């Protein structure tokens, strides 16, 4: 959520920044409501002062033997005016918050405006593998090897689902264990969150209200705010763990990672670049999250990008890192770098990790703060997240980049200890 004071003090600056995301901001109504809120607060303070002045007359009137009934009547009237003013303020605050909740985050100043066309490749690792035999795509390879069953996955749940079988299930589990071991070695705390979350989590993460229709709801009540939904990413849970709390500044940065299946309604299209496991309704992912001090937010972001990149590098996969333009960052994020792995059969890179910094946007929405050691006052901290990693893009990359002429697939060396020393997956 945006800072109303920043909007008031530099409205054009915020308008120009949001325009880089393609968002046309208009703060007229919000600032009018905020002016009215401030005016009402002043009026209430005057009424309270008047009420105190009137009530101070009661002892003197009683001492003089005069009736205090008129005083009580006046105090009652003032009290009703104060209550009406408080209700008005509450209504104005709700209007202001609802107006701010639908606005995207302000992109960092160094980001280019626009969409994907202005993304910048900032790193390339390795070279695309070359093959001296006919190249197969991951769907055919996985089907021939019997490690992914797309047909029966569709039979069970419809399009956008698949079944890991035999060595495919072991490869999936090997990847997850490899990711987990790497994050533990880096000092991150392992979290297994609930897979069903309350509305407040979607709101705090910045996914609601705008994207509330893109998750799977467990509809038990007409009011979604009283329902739960299946988490679309563990980030939604992790960034809300300390909502409404003031954390000890000395504990920052707090570093977490979580394993979870992720559930998403959008599962792409029938386009070739989204076939097989590239995009589905359910997939496994390890998610990294940091709660950072604002002064060290930049370093935290760079650390997460390096961590996600290293995971792909140690798998021996060709990939690149792209710095996203403002309009290609999600609504909640101030900056994002994508780690994009090469899919040979498609001749394109596909994102396997997005590392993002929300700055204080999520913390303002879920009221997560730290107490500043210098001033003693609570301040909003920064939240960052990154996939570490999503397996549904990594397995296609492994299968295709490590395929052999005989239809087998060589297992990356770092995964072999999790697969009983197996070096290849064969028919």
Structure in words:
There is one protein chain. The protein is 38% helix and 21% strand. It contains 13 helices and 18 strands. It has 427 residues and is α+β, with helices and mostly antiparallel strands. An 8-stranded mixed sheet has the order 1-11-12-13-16-10-9-4. Strands 5-7-6 form a 3-stranded antiparallel sheet. It has helices spanning 4-9, 11-19, 28-55, 58-63, 69-101, 138-145, 150-157, 167-185, 199-205, 235-238, 297-314, 361-366, 391-401, and strands spanning 120-125, 148-149, 163-164, 189-191, 196-198, 216-218, 228-230, 246-247, 254-263, 282-292, 319-323, 335-343, 348-357, 369-371, 378-380, 382-390, 409-410, 424-425. Helix 3 packs antiparallel against helix 5 (69-101) and helix 6 (138-145) crosses helix 13 (391-401).
Mean pLDDT: 94
> What is the count of β-strands?
18
From the spread of the alpha carbons, the general shape counts as elongated
Classification by helices and strands? alpha+beta
- State the major sheet: 8 strands, mixed
Number of helices: 13
Determine Rg (CA atoms, Å). Answer: 27 Å
Strand order across the largest sheet? 1-11-12-13-16-10-9-4
- As a percent range, the share of helical residues equals 25-40%
**Oligomer type:** single chain
The percentage of residues in β strands lies in 15-25%
N/C terminus separation:
53 Å
**Which consecutive residue ranges, at least 5 long each, have pLDDT under 50?**
none
